[in-house]
Amino acid sequence: MAIVKLVLEIILVVFSVLLTLLILMHKGKGGGLSDMFGGGLTQNAGTSGVAEKNLNRWTVIIALLWVAIAIALGLMSKFNLV
């Protein structure tokens, strides 16, 4: 069971980095930190609608997997399965 926990922890770290990168790739909606750092200047050069939808899809999928793995690790720890 310790191997399963180790694998899940590694996957969680990889998903954390991937989720951070996916969130940073999203186009700024305006008025926030993205405009402060120059996001407002490239408003017209943003991604297409299809690319943005795919980015949203991948972000939601990775986020749901991240939450599921975090819950699984928490339950494994709570019930001393490792």
From TrEMBL:
InterPro entries: SecG. It is found in: Cell membrane; Membrane. One of its GO terms (molecular function) is protein-transporting ATPase activity. GO terms for biological process: protein secretion. It is a multi-pass membrane protein. Coiled coil: none annotated. The chain crosses the membrane at residues 6-24, 58-76. The keyword Zinc does not apply. Keywords: Cell membrane, Membrane, Protein transport, Translocation, Transmembrane, Transmembrane helix, Transport. Its main location: membrane. GO terms for cellular component: plasma membrane. Involved in protein export. Participates in an early event of protein translocation. NCBIfam families: secG. Belongs to the SecG family. This is Protein-export membrane protein SecG.
